[in-house]
Amino acid sequence: MPDGAPADDIDLIIRSIVGLAKRIRTDAKFLQADVSYVDFTLLFVLNESPGMRAVDLAEAVSIDKSTASRQLAGLERRGLIVREVDPANPRSRQLRLTPRAEQVLADADSEWRRRIAARTADWPVSDLHTFATLIDRYMGAIDPPGESPI
Predict the structure, then answer these.
(1) pTM, full prediction
(2) Which residues pair with 97 in a beta bridge?
């Protein structure tokens, strides 16, 4: 706990983080019926880092390789990703989004923006800026060695 941070504030942060995660998973249901929250997360990360290998993607989203393999197989079957030969290592495969996946992400981005705008419509611009800045600051904090991120 940060020095001098009241326990009630820490409790509120914990409840809010859990609530935010739940809301994000619930809101993710507006995506296509065949795209789960985990699928969306994988697609989002691949969009940010095209050409990742499956093992690197699994590490990036903190899931085990077997879970990533199952999820990726499903995404490939549904035409959302393709595996391409890595020119630097022909035995390795790079993951790329298909145009369909790019459309899923574009539709999701529009919907997320609409929902955030609706939920914060009565907020002063300064509060919205503070909220965005504090979330970014929290997410940028480095976890102590041996601890998993929350």
Answers:
(1) 0.77
(2) 81
